[in-house]
Amino acid sequence: MTPKNLRPHRDDVLLAVVSVAAGLVFWALGVYSSPGRGFLPAWAALVPLVVLGAMELLRRTAPRVTLSVGTVGVIADQFTVGSLATVIIFTDLMYAAVVYGKPAMARRLPVTTGLITVVITIASLAWLRTPQALLIGAVTGIVSFAPALTGATLRNHREAAEAARLRAEQTALLAEMDRSQAVAAERARMARELHDMVANHLSAIAIHSTAALSIDTEATSRDALGVIRENSVQGLAEMRRLIGLLRDADGTHEPVAVPSLDGLDALVAQAGTNGSASGLTFELHDDRPPGEPAAAPVELAAYRIVQESLTNALKHAVPGTVTVRVARADGLLTVGVDSPYGDRPGPRAPGSGAGLIGMRERTELLGGEFTAGRAGAVWRVRASLPA
Q: Interior CA angle at 345 toward 341 and 350, to 5°?
């Protein structure tokens, strides 16, 4: 223990000074707790008083030492004329030992002082054989057991309050972690939606603008400008819907219709229009049972996977046929897109890999399986989702 830790608290200094001063006043006035005892001269009562008063300075920093010295002092006080201030100081040292001592000592003292009180009460009755002997046990309980029990009660309340504070801090920390995770998950979801909604249109715009610049003919430029205008208008409309949802703090906007697999025909037809400049054709094989739609999140994920796969085909596939297959069996909704793979001679749009990441995230969030990679001369995308 460092000297700084041994420095007495200012309240303890005040308590020690007041206690010793009160004891000196009682002694000077001849107020003794046991005036009939004359084993030692009257001034001897001042020794336990001063010693226990000095122990008040260490009641917080060394409670075990102060209690041991205080016990010896209060016993020694019984062989003098006695000082009421000495007894009162001892009760405070007992209280402080429970409140500021180690947990083991704080648990033992109420039990020990309670047993001592019972033993002294029984011994007094057996020795004196008078009802007045109960007063000895009562005084013992007031001096030792009562302050120990009071200190234990206060300490329990403090520990309960500290535990509640720690639980509140942990709850706040967990809430902040949940909030951060929710924000991160929402940002990832927004990034996927924004990419899937806009990338298809921007890729078509990039491909056809490159084609118009590469093949400088009036017909090619007119066709490219038509496709560019159509995709830019649709992309702006989807951007406005997304921005409207993000700004809708009070929920006054009407909910936007969630894409489903019923819109695959229009999606594939649009991809065919956009892929004309790249020599791509698109086929759709929908083998789902009629009238059995999957859950909305599953259909949305499947739609976005097909949409992103068609966008990647527009960016990277060589001339040929892109085949889209959708089927449902054994509680699973399977989506597959095959596009011709090779060195593309014409215009192409750059890719960042975010589309594959988004498709994999969508699949894994629903507990499905996703694969994408080259299989010979075909780039194959497969997603299996629980229907």
A: 75
Tokens matching residue 336: 């597959």
Helices 84-100 and 103-128 cross at an angle (nearest 10°) of 140
State the angle between helix axes of 63-77 and 46-55 in degrees (0 to 180), rounded to the nearest 10: 170
**Apex CA 9: angle with CA 7 and CA 15, to 5°?**
125
Neighbours of 121 (CB within 10 A): 18
pLDDT at residue 323 in the model: 93
List CB contacts of 118: < 8 A, sequence separation 6 or more: 137
Q: Which two tokens stand for residue 373?
A: 């990679």
- Model confidence over 292-348: pLDDT tens digits? 788 888 888 898 899 888 888 887 888 889 999 999 888 899 999 999 987 766 555
**Nearest Cα residue to 313 out of 227, 204, 220, 185:** 204
Pick out the chain residues at pLDDT < 50.
Answer: 1-4, 255
Q: What local confidence, expressed as pLDDT, does residue 37 receive?
A: 64
